[in-house]
Every structure is written in structure tokens, then in C-alpha cells.
Amino acid sequence: MPSIRLPRRPLIVCLLLIALGASAQPAWSQTRYLFDAPGTWKAWKPFSAISSARTARGATPAEVKAFEATLLELNAILRRAPGVATPRGFSVETWGALLGPGLAGGGRPAGKSLPLAGSLDFGAFPIFEHERDGKVIREDTGETALQIFQVNDPWMGSGRGPGEWGGVETDAFMQPKPKGEVAGIPLYGDALVMAKSPESLWAPVPFGAALDLVVASRRVDVASYQGSLERYKARLAVVRDPAWQATRMKEAKEAAVRMPKPEEFIASIEASLHIEEASLVQEISPTGDTGKSLVAAQRALDEVTAWLAELSPADRAAPACYAAEAKGLRAKFRPGLSAGCVAIVRPNYQYFNAALPRSAPQVLSITPVARCLDTANKYNDEASSKSPAGCTANRKLIETMDKDAIRAWLR
Prior knowledge:
This protein is α+β, with helices and mostly antiparallel strands. It contains 13 helices and 15 strands. It has helices at 11-23, 51-57, 61-79, 82-85, 207-240, 242-256, 262-284, 289-310, 313-317, 329-332, 370-373, 391-400, 403-409, and strands at 32-33, 90-98, 118-126, 128-132, 135-139, 147-151, 173-174, 178-182, 185-188, 191-195, 202-204, 320-322, 333-335, 342-347, 363-367. β4 and β5 (135-139) form a beta hairpin. The two termini are 58 Å apart.
């Protein structure tokens, strides 16, 4: 491994740093974590239900209150988990929030027809002491790795879309891969999912709809380059306008009076006008960067629109999948499911039982998982932490919480 040579610093800087260190030690050097100190479960924080989420969900005050009560029921179950019921070295804070309905698409029902959804955040904050003004201060707050319990919203962060959809908002994504179980709970992508209904949480996206999203993305690209081209053309018209040129040169001559070499200054301004004009002419030409980019973007758009026009009704309706490692658009997007090709899906809005109260919990997803539970990853410092707070407490919570009680809580 090559050696790294540090730059030399002036002696005065080094002496200054030494003097500062002697006169006032940094705060971090006085912090002491108390791994054996008894902690507490703090009171439930005020429920967050911002007006935009309430409006988008069409939630009445009574429904919001009932949904908070649902989260408090879950909080009571978590609080009994033996691994965190009597915290030592950390204190627990929990709070909840109402979530908006997310991105539109795929015939998503109006927010009023969906159950309320939200999150319960669990945070195990380390207990530590530090000095302030000569006094020892004990605290149990700050930063920690949160474990988030999402109710009636199993799709948030569940997957990402193909890169060819860049710039387009959609509720569609590549279906998360099942990864076995963690503490007896099925793992999909980076979320543990608990649900009573065997019905799928995801619905297939038709192949034609998946390509329509590619079209939308490429139209954004074309519009962006066209906009740039029009702005360059507008600027070129200004630069070529005799009245604008006369004003610019008049200003240059007035400024030149204060310059040591007035003639050279005026000549430089005149030259800059010619340079800008030539640069703009080149930019909008078919060989300029913007011109070439627009041609390439239009060609890419034509590629997918022509493909769509060729499709049979059966292919358009077939479930779409995406092979990320394949080369070329037609190899990556495929009608029907095949080996090495990940299904493209969107939320199955028919999953929920509409006969239940909107505050009823029907599905629970726990995320993130990899940050704290992937202890096999030797590079995951969070997962291997020796502190009883943060990830250690999160793992104990998932391992020891009453799964049967949670399943009974689900409707």
C-alpha cells in the first residue's frame, strides 16, 4: 500500500493548536458513556399529523385520534419486549406520525378510500456524562439508529425503479426480493413484513405501462435539451442585436476611462462579444453539445415509441420485468417473467379490507434492516456496535418482541 505524505504546516500553526489544546480540551474528550446505568422508557411524544397528510388522507380528527391509539397499542407490545423492557445503558423514546398516501399512479384510489397509514419510531439513546461549566451533566438523548415500524404502508422504500425511469414520479418499482426470515419475520428487500392476509402486497405492472414510463422519462430529456437550445438561441439574438452591442460598447468605453490601458480594455470587450457569439452558434449547431444531446435524446425517445407501436395487445398486457444486467432497452425490459428478470410491480391497493375501520392495522413493515441486523457484514459498524444503545437495542427489540401479540393486533 503506498504511503501517504502529509503536508507540512507552519510551526506557528502547530504551536497555536498545542496552546489551544492545553487551555481548553474539546468537549468530546470529556464524554463518558455509561453502559450499565439504568435507563427509562420515556413518555410517548406528541403525535405528528401535519395538515397536508390529514388532507391527502381525508382523515377526520376522530380517525386521527383512533389511529394514534392503534400505534399506542403497538407501543405497549414493544415496551414488553424482554430485550428492551428494562433498559440499561440507554433510554427509549418512541413517537408516531401520520403519513401521506405517497406517489400517485397505477389507478391509486383517493386517499379517503385507503386506510390511515403512519409510522412508530423507536429510538434507544445512549446514557452518557460530560462536563459543562465545571459540572457533570448526565444525558440520554442525541443521535441514534432508529427502528421504524410502518403501519398500513408496506411499500415505502420497498424498492427502486429502473434507471430508465429517471425524472418521472411513479408508484411502480422493482419487486423486493425475499431474503428469508429475521427473528421469524419474512424479509423483503430492507424491510421485515408482517401481515395476516395471504394476498400479495404488490400488483404486476403491465409491460406497456412500464415502457410508457420510459417514454415519459425520455420526453423529459428531450424537453430539457429543447429548453436549453431555445435559451441559447434567445441569447444569440441578444448578442447579435446592434442596439445591445452599441450599449455594451458604450459602457465599455465609459469604464475604460478608469483603466490603465483603455484601448486594450475596449478591444478585450469587443473580442469577448465575438467569442460569445461564436460559442452560442457552435452550441446550437448539430455538432454542438446541446445540439448533439437533443438529437440523441430524440433518437432514444423514438426508439421506445416505435417499440410500443410494434407490441401486440397481449404483450402490452403481460406482466413486466426488468433485467438490470442486460444490454440495451429491449433486453432489459421484457414482457412476462423470466429468469434473471425482476418483476415490476406497484402497490396492490385492493389488499386492504375496506370493511374495517380506517385506523385498523392491516400490515406492518419494519425498516431499515441491513443497518442494524446485518451482523454478518464485517463492514457494518452499526451492526457490530458494542454499545447497548442504537443497533444493539434494535436487534434485541426485533428478537424478543412478542410476534404473536403483534399478529393478533393486526386485523
